[in-house]
Amino acid sequence: MSKLPHIGTSIFTVMSQMANEHQAINLSQGFPNFPVDERLTAITAKLAYENVHQYTPMAGHSGLLDKITRLTLASYNRNLNPVTDMVVTAGATEAIFATIQALVNKNEEVIILDPSYDCYEAPILLSNALPVRVALNDDYTPNWEAIATRMNAKTRMLIINNPHNPTGKIWSEADFIQLEKLLDLYPDVILLSDEVYEYITYEQPHISVNTRIKLRDKSVIISSFGKSLHITGWKIGYAIAPEYLMREIKKVHQFLVFSVNSLSQVAISEYLDIVDFNEIATMYRQKRDYFRELMAKTPFELLPCEGSYFQVASYASFSKQNDIDFSKELITRYGVATIPISTFYADGKDLKLVRFCFAKDNNTLEQATLRLQKVAF
C-alpha cells in the first residue's frame, strides 16, 4: 500500500520530459543553463587534488558553517552560533523534509499557502499529519483572515515562501507585522520560512525572518546555495534555527544523508570569500528585464516579478483552455515548455497562468520568445 497514494510524477518532470520528446525549449524547470562562475570551477578543480574527499562532520564542514555565520551577519545583522544554530543539507528540499519530519507529529496540522512548491506536502503526510492548504489572494499577498480562520490548537507549523515560487512575490513589512500578530496568538506554532531565492530580488528588498526578532526564535529558515549561486545540481542548502529546534532537525538529517558532499562544501566555503551576491541579483535583474522586453512582442500579459527567476504570464486574453492543456499544447505546437500554475494549488485553481523560468542564456530566451510570438489559440 502506498504511503503517498495521490502523489505522482511532479509536473516539473512531466514538462521536462515532454520538452525533450518534442525538442522544445525548456523554460519550465527552474535551473540555469548558462556557465557557472569560472572562479568557482577553478576552486573546485584545485580542490579535487586536495584531501577533501572524506566525510565532513554531520552538521557541515566547519569552514562552511563559519562562512554561513559571516554571511548571515553581513546580510541580516544576525549573530549565529555555527555549532548549534545551523546545518548544511543536501539541497533545500532535504532541509525542508528533515525539518518537517523532526518537528511535526501525528495528527498535527501544517498550514501551506497556495500556490505552493510541491515538496512541502509529502513530509507532512509521512509524519501522519494533516496539510492544510490556504490560498493566497489573487495578487499573491497573504490572506490573513483566511489563514487565521484555519489556525487552531492542532496547528504545529506554518510554512511561508518568500520570495515566492512560482509567482516572484515578495512579502512587505505589513505582511510580517500581521504574521507576528497572528503567531503571538499561537506561541507554540513553528514558522518554516523557505527563503531559497533570498539573494535574487529586484526593486523590492527581501525581508528575511532572520531580521525579525519576534519570529526567529520560533523559526526554521531555509536557504539554498544551489539557487543563490546557480549551481542547482550541487544540491547544497542549509537551515538556520534556534538550538532547541536544530537539535531535533539534526537527528533526522543524520539518518537521511549523514553529511553532504565534501568537495562542494569546501569549494563553496572558499568561493564565499570572493563572490558578490549583489552582482548575482544584478545579473538576474538584467535577465528579467530582457525577458520581459522580449515577451512584450508576444500575446501574453506579464504579472509583476519582484524576486526569484520566474515570470508568471496570463494567456486569458486569447485562450480559454485550462492551463495544463494549454502548457502541453505550447510544447507540442510551439516548442516552448512552461509550468501551469494550477498545479501549485491543492484544488487545481486555474487562473489561466503559466510560469516561465528566465534563468537562461540570452540566446535561449530569444529563441523561445520568437516561438511565443507565433502563439495563436
Description:
The chain has 377 residues and is an alpha/beta fold. The longest helix is centred in the C-terminal third of the chain and has 19 residues, at 277-295. The model has no long low-confidence stretch (mean pLDDT 96). Helices cover 38% and strands 15% of the residues. The protein folds into two domains: 11-37 and 277-372, Aspartate Aminotransferase, domain 1; 50-271, Aspartate Aminotransferase, domain 2, CATH 3.40.640. Helix 2 packs across helix 10 and helix 4 packs across helix 9 (243-256). The protein has helices at 11-21, 38-47, 62-76, 91-103, 121-126, 144-150, 173-185, 225-228, 243-256, 262-271, 277-295, 323-334, 362-372; strands spanning 25-26, 86-89, 109-114, 130-135, 155-161, 190-194, 219-224, 237-240, 301-302, 310-314, 336-337, 339-340, 353-357. It is built from 13 helices and 13 strands. A seven-stranded mixed β-sheet has the order 2-8-7-6-5-3-4, with helices on both faces. Belongs to the class-I pyridoxal-phosphate-dependent aminotransferase family. This is Aminotransferase class I/II-fold pyridoxal phosphate-dependent enzyme. It holds the Pfam family Aminotran_1_2.
- Fraction of residues in helix: 25-40%
Question: Can you tell me the CATH architecture of the largest domain?
Answer: 3-Layer(aba) Sandwich
H/E series: HEHHEHEHEHEHEEHEHHHEEHEEEH
- Which geometry do the CA atoms define? globular
CATH class of the largest domain, named Alpha Beta
Domain Aminotransferase class I/classII large: 24-368
GO molecular function: kynurenine-oxoglutarate transaminase activity; pyridoxal phosphate binding
Pfam family, one: Aminotran_1_2
Cofactor: pyridoxal 5'-phosphate
